[in-house]
């Protein structure tokens, strides 16, 4: 009998191994929320292409092969967190993730804006604090090519307080979104969580996994840290499974 278990391909960290990366966390949160049976296959960066290329066509944009990827029990493999969310929702509609929420497109604009501002901090600290040695050469080479300079130089020129200051407006815009429900919270739709929440929770958990100093730096620029702390408390049941 074929297994009905989903396989999530996620990125390995230094021991003890835990989920850390933003995009895989979106998928993991959704799987945990829906209570689906899944296992995790952990990969270092150089293992991604060799593992995936026989099963899924390359992405049309960005990195050709990326994490998260999910293998469904029917043999379907899908890359990219948003495409995975759609496939999960089609196969397992309950409880609903509200992918058509009007907040979805808005959060998908604000998170990249905050990420872009904070890249000098993220790109420098992920390899120092999270990656196994097997991923380091890949990270420094590929990310350095993306920003057009060595990562240490990128951090020196654009990191620190300047990066947090550049991120402040999109971070405050997210806070304003969470206050649109009249303070009912803790989620964007009030008491009902939606996938747009998972996108933001994944961002916050990514910052927290890099380090409490980075997480604190983000919270301080949101304009109202309590909004986000309450959200993370509410999300705790879906963040708990992070190592298998």
UniProtKB/TrEMBL annotation:
The UniProt entry, under Gene3D superfamilies, shows:
1.20.1050.10, Glutaredoxin
In this chain the Glutathione S-transferase UstS-like C-terminal domain maps to 110-225
Q: Which domain of life is it from?
A: Eukaryota
- Write down the CDD domains for this protein, in alphabetical order: GST_N_etherase_LigE
Boundaries of every GST N-terminal domain copy: 20-91
The UniProt entry, under Pfam families, shows: GST_C_7, GST_N_2
Protein name as it appears in the record: Thioredoxin-like protein
- What is the species listed in this Swiss-Prot or TrEMBL entry? Purpureocillium lilacinum
